[in-house]
Amino acid sequence: LMVEKGNYRHFMQKEIFEQPVVVAQTLQSYLRPVEGQVALPDPDFDLSQIKRVTIVACGTSYYAGMVARYWIERFARVPVEIEAASEYRYREPVMEEGGLSLFISQSGETADTLAALRHARAGGQKIAVVVNVPTSSMAREADLLLPTHAGPEIGVASTKAFTCQLAVLAAFATHIARVKGQLTQQEEQDIVRHLAEAPAALNAALAFNDTIENVATAIAPARDVLYIGRGPDYPLAMEGALKLKEISYIHAEGYAAGEMKHGPIALIDDKVPIIVLAPSGPLFEKTVSNMQEMQARGGKVILISDEKGIQEAGDNCLATLTMPKVHPLIAPIVYAIPVQLLAYHVAVIKGTDVDQPRNLAKSVTVE
Ligand code: G6P
Question: What does this protein do (predicted)?
């Protein structure tokens, strides 16, 4: 299969810009907008009897899983644990009856995740798989197969697979909430409506490409960069930091905004840019107060929020990026765009090999 770059300079850039289309494509097979319902393939086990969900993945897919934990717990009221596949296998996890193990992988071949899947199967767990390659090993070994329709992803640093994973995971969380009797019809309709708005919101976020390119010039000289967020935007902070590390080789860390004061705030000076992910919503005020603690110590903040958030808190920032106003549910899908583009433009400025970063492989099939 030949995939071309078309008018784009890099595959990663092309894949970032494809997201409105591929997320829409993915959502199409999981949403019934007219009925206001999600539609999942029928598993060969009873999802309503699931007592616990264990999410296992690596890298970017792991951060998608961290976002999903918030959704599944909030909507379905089912306890969720999540772990990196390389750790999960070797700590002798307790696997009880009624456990569902959920594996997330772009390639469906990552050795650690695949081995964890087989380990969970041997432990009597039901196996659900969110995967982008439908012919992969993980896809073949699933009891419940939840494909993403991102199309082939060539850039080593994952982008469009991530947002498609989030789209599927949001639909999955909604579905399990319904079969568990935790959602009214109205609530499900609302979620479906918000999810259906994601592709347009992704387009609106992409329109800020030039602004983000400008911000990237301020980030490129930095030695360290911090990303902070709360709730479902905390995993996104880690994903943002991972993207920057992977392709620009700048040291970056994603942190839970409220944890900064327990250590990392000691790193703050005017040389460390801080990317704050703070959509307006229930956690906004808290994140902003953490942000102000850092500004008080000379920290240079780039605030990513919506118009309302930026009006309220954007004053003393080095730069602000205005995202479309979206429901907090879909914010992690939309806020993926600015963190991906920021990493991309910093890497281009630094002249690194964006699509084939040093030391990394697209699919890690060794332990
Ligand atoms: C590699 C890639 C990452 C990816 C991770 C997990 O490290 O460089 O971009 O997130 O593997 O891959 P998977 O195919 O399992 O999602």
Answer: Catalyzes the first step in hexosamine metabolism, converting fructose-6P into glucosamine-6P using glutamine as a nitrogen source.
